[in-house]
Every structure is written in structure tokens, then in C-alpha cells.
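chain below, 90 aa
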Amino acid sequence: MDTCCAKALVTGKVQGVGFRRAAQEQALKAGITGHAINLADGRVEVLMCGERTAVKRLAEWLRTGPGAARVTHVEFEVIEAHAPDDFHTG
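prediction:
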């Protein structure tokens, strides 16, 4: 499975409109782990880890969010995700 992790900072009317709950529902349906948290500056931070195409779909959804949200900007950062290294002896 081709997995990846990404962090998104979502700007606009994204607090108090059900954005985090809707993002959680989208993520759970897609098998994505991570979080959606409100930031003090009014943005929402979304961490997404999972199958690459599922993360990409959730990232696209973040650009509009739920109906009551008004997203004006989304900043993405890809985060390194890898399985633990093997441990070999001798």
C-alpha cells in the first residue's frame, strides 16, 4: 500500500461551522488517521495519514469543506511517513 502523510492549514470561516466533525467523517470513511484541531488564529489544522489516493481526496475536500464553511486558503505540507527500519545483525 502506498501511504503518505500530509498536514493542511485551512483558512477562512472554518471554526464554529462543523468543519472538524465533517473532516473527521470524511477521514474515517476513507480509512485515514490524523486529527483536525482549531488553532488560536482561526485556522484549522488537519493531519492526514493513509493511502495516498485517499489522502489526496481528503485534501481536495478540504478546499470546500462542509456547506457552512467558507474556505479561502489551504496550505499543504507533505510529512515523511515510513515503516520502521529493519534491524539486522551479523
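The first helix runs from residue 19 to 30. The chain has a mean pLDDT of 88.
thats it, cya
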